[in-house]
Amino acid sequence: xxxxxxxxxxxxxxxxxxxxxxxxxxxxxxxxxxxxxxxxxxxxxxxxxxxxxxxxxxxxxxxxxxxxxxxxxxxxxxxxxxxxxxxxxxxxxxxxxxxxxxxxxxxxxxxxxxxxxxxxxxxxxxxxxxxxxxxxxxxxxxxxxxxxxxxxxxxxxxxxxxxxxxxxxxxxxxxxxxxxxxxxxxxxxxxxxxxxxxxxxxxxxxxxxxxxxxxxxxxxxxxxxxxxxxxxxxxxxxxxxxxxxxxxxxxxxxxxxxxxxxxxxxxxxxx
Length: 271
Fold this sequence. Notes:
By secondary structure, the chain is mainly beta.
């Protein structure tokens, strides 16, 4: 009996060892990584931008007989705004439309020398020298563009494009004239001051006009992710010529305004 029990125990032990040897611990594998998103330029997008502009207000003043050519001024300043648009991608070509609205800090002022005249005082003992000057101020508070875009996909995440279309902007022109007079002597041609100069300020004038023009430029845009992209862009903007009152009866100012714009921005695409 003892021999039988011993034999049975040995057999059970051997069976347990064999079962343990045959058992394999299960191997757990991580799920396969999802495929990378397919980058496309199709769809609606919106975004924001900021930059700097280098403008020029070219001003010609007419008095009916004489014109002073280009008494304008560089009008530079910061800008910032928003844009929205839509793209359609055809293989490696992208066509679309974009509109933007910009606030700007473009402003400048210039003092214009109007020349001096010498007048003899009745009696001939003195003369008066009168000098005319004007302070002109130029400002573009805002503008907006409505442009087509046509580009080529250099690689799935990089777009090069040209753009152009309609521009709308407000151009403000303000002016004030000053007359400075001083008495000199002796006689009609004397140059010795006979009194302190006196300056009389004219009425300040200000006029705002919303003007239509055109714009054209180019840019590059880079996909950061399927939805986000960053861009850099250059635009030339021309708001043409317009007539403003120059502050002196019978005179007009013809003001041409053009702008060079460099800006960067980000877009979010709905995909």
